[in-house]
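ARCHIVE CARD
Drawer: 12
Card no.: 0347
Subject: one protein chain, sequence and derived structure
Cross-reference: see card 0346
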Amino acid sequence: MKKMILAYNFSEERLSGVKRSAVAVRAVVKAVPAESFGEKIGHLIGIPGYEQEGAAPDGSFSDEMLLMSGFDSADIDMLIKALRKYGVGRVALKAIVTETNTGWSSTELYAAVKADHEEMQKRSSGN
């Protein structure tokens, strides 16, 4: 599978840093516009059988989020280091494409990733 990063809600400057970082892991970066948030992840990353539905966004969000496809743990580590190197820094919301989430919209994915992130924050703060 070709390595791809879907980038959500990044400014042009920060998106440029993500693209420079992606070179380290030989990944393509695709910025996902808000009008495509209702499309299935499988379509956005080009999985056969996931056709464009022309789905209206089923909600919106403004947080930055990265979705990585075709990455292993070493790729993730390299990308995180490269994001720091190229001035992007920490991106709180990150996910990997899975068999389950390919059928989700970007908004559904965001809700799940955000909930997981908040749960981890609670655990690390001892609440």
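Annotation on reverse: Strands lie at 4-8, 28-32, 65-69, 94-96. The chain has a mean pLDDT of 93.
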